[in-house]
Design goal:
Layout: H1 3-20, H2 25-36, E1 46-54, E2 61-68, E3 73-80, E4 83-90, E5 93-98, E6 101-103, H3 113-126, E7 138-149, E8 152-161, E9 169-174, E10 181-187, E11 201-211, E12 214-224, E13 230-237
């Protein structure tokens, strides 16, 4: 057998081994967490990062986010054009600034403490994935699906949530070789809990940006499920 043929056989065997391995959903999630959080640091995460958001027909927005999970602290300072907004949640206490001026309650600019909590949950969830899939209220489907998406093969987890947590259904797509999370997708549900197939969005993840030991996707490109329309792109940039 020639060296080239031996190499081909070994390569094919390796690929077959990856795809024939019967992982449970919990095992797949653990392998992805081991990739993104190799030192098990998320539960004590303390760090800051900057996100540049670009959207069609709108100016760029740059947001600086600080998260300290042990101290129950979150803040986001965002700038778009000449407008600067600041939200802070510190042990449940809310603080807001609009162009440097303090705001005590909802105003005509749409700022509120409810929005501050929304931003806290949004950024902590998205940048804490896949570790956040261990949170209470998360319902992990037992089956691991093999699916091709955008001409690439993935191992896929289906996730739903307790009624008190949320009603959307999510799918998380993992690289079958590295277990890196590379795509996620969500759908709305109707009153019977069935997925509304022309609802929701999918998000393509690319590159890796390490923040205090956590491997975060550097770029998130958002698209509608129904027509593949591009909604915008979030990119982690140097502070």
């Amino acid at each position: 057998m020639t060296v080239r043929l031996v190499f081909l056989v070994v390569t094919l065997f390796s690929l077959f081994s990856v795809w024939s391995q019967e992982l449970t959903a919990a095992q797949l999630l653990d392998k992805s967490i081991a990739f993104h959080d190799p030192n098990n640091q998320w539960s004590t995460f303390e760090g800051d990062f900057t996100v540049e958001m670009t959207t069609p027909n709108a100016s760029k927005r740059v947001s600086h986010i600080k998260i300290n999970l042990p101290l129950e602290y979150f803040s986001v300072s965002a700038k778009r054009d000449s407008v600067n907004t600041y939200y802070e949640i510190n042990k449940g206490q809310c603080k807001m600034l609009y162009n440097g001026k303090s705001i005590d309650s909802i105003n005509d600019k749409g700022m509120s403490c409810d929005r501050a909590v929304l931003y806290k949950n949004y950024y902590t969830y998205l940048y804490g994935l896949p570790m956040k899939l261990k949170d209470p209220g998360t319902v992990l489907d037992k089956e691991v699906e093999k699916r091709t998406f955008k001409n690439r093969d993935y191992l896929v987890l289906k996730v739903s949530y307790d009624a008190s947590t949320g009603s959307d259904i999510w799918f998380f797509y993992f690289n079958p070789s590295t277990y890196a999370m590379e795509v996620y997708q969500f759908f709305k549900t109707d009153d019977s809990g069935r997925m509304i197939l022309d609802s929701g969005e999918y998000i393509l993840l690319s590159e890796i940006f390490v923040v205090n030991g956590i491997k975060m996707p550097q770029t998130r490109a958002w698209y509608y499920n129904k027509d593949n329309k591009h909604l915008g792109t979030d990119t982690l940039i140097e502070n």
